[in-house]
Amino acid sequence: MLQDLNKRSLEIFRQIVEAYVDTGEPVGSRTVARRLNGRLSPATIRNVMADLEESGLLRAPHTSAGRLPTDVGLRLFVDALMEVGNLAPEEREAIEVQCASLGKRPEAVLTEATSLLSGLSAHAGVVIAPNQGSVFRHVEFVPLSRERALVVLVTDAGAVENRVIDIPPGLLPSTLVQATNFINARLAGRTLDEVRQLVQKELDEHTAELDDLTARVVEAGLATQAGQTAGEATLIVRGQANLLKDLSAVQDLERIRSLFQLLETKRDLMRLVDLTKDAEGVRIFIGAEHALFAMTDCATVVAPFRDREGRVVGAIGVIGPTRLNYGRIIPLVDYTARVVGRLVT
By the 8 A CB rule, do 275 and 268 touch? Predict the structure, then answer.
């Protein structure tokens, strides 16, 4: 589509999108002519606007003679025409200082970062972080009686967690030692869920050198711990009131209602993390480009944040109307995600 547009059409299209981002209103030919300092007449601009509308980049609302960019047009602008700005040094420092307060728990850092994004962007800030589980360093099976054993796990942070499991009556102490050694050989540097998946795969493929009783102890210990240490995902949304600023019609109210419902649903927003896993940096979703946002007619700028091993542990971003100031918000989200990733891991 970009190749089909000449230089004049691209310039007029750019001016329309930038004017729309500034005002949120339909843009007429006279407005574009003024922005071009009279280099083209309104009549010439109207002809080009008609061609842009025919190509699917602009649309004409019923209540105005002006034009608005379509979702396709905004995507073309973001991918090919937009100039991404740079954060000022004082903005970078503000993000670092507000997020990096000594003694803050990871959730406090995420809350601060979400509020900061909302304030700096004047839209809604959102963060979603699946429960990753603690990284464990050591496990021990300790016999309590003929039918019960204590599972003791020590995390990399030094925390100790205990659970009691049922074991087959008369189990030999050597079986518990074998179960301990088997899990510890696979535990270092992994979360309990990762270990559970690895062990289950080995047991299913019969590659684990365990007898039946030891395998049952291993499965019981992992299942009990995984079930009780897995918490809910973290979902933080700040600045929802900012989404009410541009309401001008009943359909806008319905759109915002749909968005509010989405922002309250952890299960749906968890998909944001999956959508960013393959991204090197910021991902942008405009309007109905993705089913997750199809009913909201909004735009989302989101970036993953990673742990020290480069694994995606969450996503943070900004949600607002499709007329977001993308060039301003993209570097803001990108830098905040990198700061958050460093602090929470």
Answer: no
Residue 312 pairs in a beta bridge with 306
Q: Count of residues for the chain?
A: 345
Q: What is the pTM of this model?
A: 0.70
Cα-to-chain-centroid distance, residue 328: 18
Of 3.20.20.80, 3.30.70.2860, 3.30.450.40, 3.30.420.10, the CATH number of 89-131+233-344 is 3.30.450.40
Instruction: State yes or no: pLDDT of 233 exceeds 80.
Output: no
Quote the pLDDT of residue 227: 46
Neighbours of 186 (CB within 10 A): 17
d(CA 315, CA 317): 7
Q: Is residue 228 over pLDDT 60? A: no
Give the CATH fold of the 136-229 domain. Enolase-like; domain 1 (3.30.390)
Q: Is 13 exposed, middle or buried (CB count within 10 Å of its CB: 0-12, 13-18, 19+)? A: buried
Q: What is the pLDDT of residue 157?
A: 57
